[in-house]
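note to self: the first set is below, dont mix up w the second
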Amino acid sequence: MPLEITVKRIGKPLQKVAERTYEVFYDKNRRWAAEQLWECIIEECPKPPKNKWATGDLVNWLRANKSRCIKFTKEKGMRRIVRINIEEAPDITFIVSRCRPHIIRPRFKRYLHFFKEGKEFFIRHEVHHPGKSANNFLYRAARRYSARYLAKIA
């Protein structure tokens, strides 16, 4: 399932093409539009917790792989578009889609080992994970970009 924003020259300010695929448009310079949209994605991206055991820092991955995610292409004719695809980001499916409550059990070892608030825990049996709601930051970034774009035009 693609997680992308397409930037075209004509169209509605913000349009949902498919599930988790959006279209926005630009006026003159597509590289400038891609930079502005990338800044909006970085601003809306969920930040990691402020402890030293936190893993999965999506913001730093996005900053490091900017050139890999942004593609400048041409469609039929002279239409030039920009595709921003963050499908390869680590743990992106767990961030964008919701996670239901479930039980975590040790599979290969005898104990579960994890850190919480700076303390180390070992649990022998199971842990009840409370679940997590969906965080569609890609839509919020597209909405923020289109609001900036419309403010610039007006």
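second set (the one i keep forgetting abt)
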Amino acid sequence: MESAVNPPHIAVLGSGFAALTAVRELRRHHRDARITLVAPRAALTYYPSLIWVPAGLRRGADLDIDVSRFLAGQNVEFHAGRVSGLADGGRTVLTGNGSITNDALLIASGGRFLKSLPGIEHALTICEGVAAAESIRERLEKMDRGTIALGFGTNPREQGAMRGGPMFELLFGIDTLLRRQGRRDRFKLVFFHAAKAPGKRLGEKAVAGLLREMQKRDIATHLGHKPTGFEADRVKTEGGDVPADLILFMPGMSGPAWASETGLPLSDGGFFQADAYCQVTSADKVYVAGDCGSYPGPDWLPKQAHIADLQAKAAAKNLLRALAGKPAVARFKVELICIVDTLDRGILVYRNEKRALMLPSCRLFHWAKRFFEWQYLRSYRRTTRT
């Protein structure tokens, strides 16, 4: 896109996968646009590798990446502040550190976990960030024996709003860790879920394979019973209690808490409602990417970093076309790619609208996941413009 006498001002909310990919895409196609990124910190947390922190394969500092140099290299202004709402149909972003006007807005601020179950404070949620992952590591180190219960939930108003993959990885990773340490026989691992076939969005073959892996590793299951709450020493479900010395649980997800203060259309689950082009429905030059949006597509459409990147690219392209007075054309590819890591091996799961497959556990997939992490993060550690 050519230079403009009065370049547009684009605001991007968030500093995660979708937000940073959007920044890169916007700058690639419009070198003169004024871009402002709004987030509490100029930092990216690499969530896919948090599952390695409890085992010591990664430190928290390895996964909390300062992106200020990346932003400077992209000639992006950084506004440190927490978003509290929007005004003027999205043309004004309200934050605790002042307001920002814009000509176009891309919301990529991520979602939040639903904390409605009674006693949820007794459970640790690894995808809440580095501190949570480190707390899990510390708890495991202090335990000499006991029962560890792991599970995940969903948003009852939007069943696809869940993140279950990391819990399977954490489950298998803890099993591997305890075996390495020679103390697996002193622990009982229990996986619980409201559905009898957890992880159905991965495909029937993947669900069957994951359950076989649990059986192979002598992991107990408590399936088909909806969790109703937690206590310090147990998970309460409609089908009875699961005694536990450590509870690891991934709640269902919703949109950001401030979404209701925007006046923009929301889905039943509290996410920004998007069309096939990642534009917020009926909103002028307001786009969404990543976990904070609800998109048309199959019910297995995942909330994960890979799809967030694909959505961000489509949203950025369509935003720039809108600024140029052109119709949206870019759509994101609907697919799920997941390596369920077991600390030393990996199970590859792939799904698109035509097929679903699962490849057996092997060491290659574990190393592929580690390589992808290195490759993905290296660009944000560079100081030059990309």
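remember for set 2: The CA atoms of residues 149 and 190 lie 5 Å apart.
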